[in-house]
What does this fold into?
Amino acid sequence: MIKDMKSISMSEAAEYVQKTEERDMPAFIKKFVKLNPKQAKDLRKELEGLNLIKANDKHISKIIDILPEDEETINKIFSDVSLDEEETKKLLDAIKKHI
It folds into this structure.
């Protein structure tokens, strides 16, 4: 039963997948994740705390998955909206704290 539709990062998804009986999925996800579930949740909380109107759940999930290190990569994630330099800097500063 679906209770809530919300985008989550692969790190956060790994936590849910571990609770299932599927044995190969966690190993598959581990190949791609860069943060453990707790780190991903902490980063999500910090990114959401920035209160950037242009940053939605999908953007935040992609940031957690990719952990961009420069403005160009951030702008690729936010291809549907334009971020100003201040917004981009806030995002990059938050990411740097968690890498």
Remarks:
- The radius of gyration is 14 Å.
- The mean pLDDT is 87.
- The CA atoms of residues 18 and 26 lie 6 Å apart.
